[in-house]
Amino acid sequence: MGLMITVRDTASRRKNYIQIIICGILICFLAIVPLLTNSPYNLHIFILTLIYIIAAASMRFIMTSGQIPLAHGAFLGLGAYVSGILSKHFGISSWLTLLVAALVAMGVGTFISFPFARLKAFYYSMISLFFGVGMLQTIESFGKLTGGITGITGIPTLFHTASKVPFYYCFLALMLISLFILYRLEVSRIGWNLKAIEQSYLVAGSVGISVVQHRVLAVAIGCFFAGLAGGMYATYNVTISPSSFDMAATLWLIIYVTIGGMGNFAGPIIGTLVLFLLPQYYSGLKQYTPFISAAILFAVLYTFRDGLVSVPGLVVSFYKKRKKGRSKS
Amino acid sequence: MIILEVTGLTKNFGGLAAVSNIDMKVNGGEVLGLIGPNGAGKTTFFNLITGVIRPTKGQVVYKGKDITGKKPHEIAEMGIGRTFQLNPLFPNFTILQNVLSSFQLRPRSTLLGTFFNTRVYRNNEAYILEQSLEILKLVGLDKVKDEMAQNQPHGYQKMLGVARALAIKPELLLLDEPIAGMNPDEIDNTIEAIKRTSHLGVTIILVEHNMKILEICNRVIVINFGQKIVEGLPQEIKENPEVIRAYLGSGHDTKH
Fold first, then answer.
1. Does the CA dihedral B55-A123-A229-A54 come out positive or negative?
2. Is residue A34 part of a domain?
3. Fewer beta carbons below 10 Å: N end or C end of chain B?
4. Are residues A6 and B92, on separate chains, in Cβ contact within 8 Å?
5. How remote is the C-alpha of B254 from its chain's centroid?
6. Which among A190, A200, A204 is the nearest to B114, CB-wise?
């Protein structure tokens, strides 16, 4: 498979089998969720989780290149609005609008990242921050088309049934495909080049990695999936409003990624599960979600710097060390 | 054969001329030393050649082609490798991964090939692995190939810089202070490795202010305050009064 897999030793090959098994179990579990529960609320939460996993994973993909996309929430919004407007006002099929939303987000992302890709990665973060705020303002001020602050209601949906099950399976498939593509890109040479640029763009340039091209590519791919996730949100939720895509949305995504662990592909998935899915079930504590999430964030960052993904590895190495210590004494 | 020709190269930072009006010709296969005290403009000179910064004036011609103002990765593509004085590596990769990820150019995989893991891509990666191990052997790092680069001693990191630069199969290699901060053992090893590299037919330009490097140079150019002051054989350079003045100051001049 990827560049580094060619040089794997047996120990990491075993680890890889474990990873495949864990992935298999997770996918099986996700596949039978609609059979386990009848409540539409549960399915609703799970569908939103699937969408946020795509968003968080695509955000992390941009982060591997060292750029922090502070407009990722806004790109979700861009995708949602493109999809919503096209299907409501122009009567285009919802399936097609998903693709168009993704492509528009990718185009806009490329357009804003291109002039800044040759500077330090920090400048991309800055411009994306301004861009995110600006885009929401634009959406709010185009009253007729976008519905202003109240947003758009009555967007045509993908499936004309009362049940949420078709949505669930469709979005599960879309999520798995998206994650597969992002994973393949990450373990390939492109992914390693992005990591190389993150570590030192000077050295990367000196060995022939085109820094500008790779940074723009990372943003384009990340924004594509953000747009897709936004489009999914619009066709599922039927109503969209600017407030779902403001700075807070971006910050939540960043928190999901950091809690899960930025250094690992599974990070954003775990982060979203822990910080988005779990809080929906603290019964009665819902209004305290931000505080609880903040507490979790502090606790995780204080104890596991590399996020929740690193916990199993730490446990294993802890026991190995103890074993070694014992055999010595 | 002249592989690199620099004419009137100048770089001003504001009012300060870091490099001013340097002319030089580099013959294919030679080891050219570029020495001078701290702040003489040696590293700036490298950055100008490799496209990290653009020159204010002047021209760089590599193998008959004008490469002035091209981007770093384009220049690497044409076969000019370089090492850095500081942060010479990707700290979070292992030694082997550092070299693997430096193989960008030959053979090149397409985006779709990379994604679909085609046979061409897999063959390319297998070939790259083999070549990387060979390079690591050449610079003497094959024993620590699976260690994290950032945990390595300074000497190893510097050698890794050379290994990385070799991965682009350079015809011209620019080494920025390859022996700075090394202990005598490491210096001997590095000099050995540079000699071996030179025997492979790679043209080398070295920047140093440690005079010990003179023993492997065919020719030496001394620069100070951004200007070329002397050019000649290593032996002549050591005895040249202007060079001694540049390094030790002009104590006897102050008497008048």
1. positive
2. no
3. C
4. no
5. 37
6. A190
Each residue's pLDDT tens digit, B124-141: 888 888 888 888 888 888
The order of strands in the sheet holding B203-208 is B80-82, B172-176, B203-208, B31-35, B219-224, B227-232
Going from the C-alpha of B192 to that of each of A253, B89, B159, B216, the distances in angstroms are: 52, 21, 11, 9
Per-position b or e across A205-232, b if 16+ CB within 10 A of its CB: bbbbbbbbebbbbbbbbbbbbbbbbbbb
Q: How far is B85 from chain A (nearest CA, A)?
A: 11
**Could you say which of B72, B109, B165 has the minimum Cβ distance to residue A189?**
B109
Q: Looking at CA atoms only, how far is residue A325 from chain B in angstroms?
A: 23
Backbone angles phi, psi at A150, to 5 degrees: -75, -20
Count the neighbouring beta carbons within 10 Å of the beta carbon of residue A57.
Answer: 31
- Cα–Cα distance for residue pair A215/A235, rounded to 1 Å: 30
Which H helix or E strand runs over B221? strand B219-224
Provide the number of structural domains found in chain A: 1
Q: Which residues of A touch B82 (CB under 8 A)?
A: 206
Query: Which residues of chain B have a CB within 8 Å of the CB of A1?
Result: 117
Q: Which of residues 24-63 of B touch A (CB under 8 A)?
A: 50-52
Provide the strand spans (E) within B45-123.
Answer: 57-62, 65-66, 80-82
Contacts by B143-146 with C-beta closer than 8 Å and gap 24+?
B144/B95, B145/B94, B145/B95, B145/B96, B146/B94, B146/B95, B146/B96
Find, among B135, B89, B19, the residue nearest to A196 by Cα: B89
- The stretch B62-81 carries a mean pLDDT of 86
Cα distance from B245 to chain A (closest Cα, Å)?
Answer: 34
Collect all residues of chain B within an 8 Å Cβ-Cβ radius of residue A197. Answer: none
Question: Closest Cα partner for A137 from A56, A220, A243, A63?
Answer: A243
* Min Cα–Cα distance to chain A from B87, Å: 8
Sign of the alpha-carbon torsion through A235, A241, A244, A246: positive
Domains of chain B, each with CATH number or no CATH? 2-255 (3.40.50.300)
Query: For the domain that residue A306 is a member of, what is the CATH number?
Result: 1.10.3470
Which one of A181, A192, A211 has the shortest CB-CB distance to B101? Answer: A192
Cβ within 8 Å, pair A200-B87: yes
Q: Which of A128, A71, A138, A79 is nearest to A103 (CA)?
A: A79
Q: Any residues with CB less than 8 A from the CB of A67 and at least 6 apart, and which? A: A113, A121, A124, A125, A215, A218, A219
Percent pLDDT > 90 in chain A is 27
Q: Which domain holds residue A194?
A: 39-328
- Which residues of chain A are under the pLDDT cut of 50? 1-10
- For residues B230 and A227, the model is more confident at A227
| Cβ distance of B104 and A207 shorter than 8 Å | yes
Supply the Cα-derived Rg of chain A in whole angstroms.
21
Its ipTM equals: 0.80
Assigned domain for A180 exists: yes
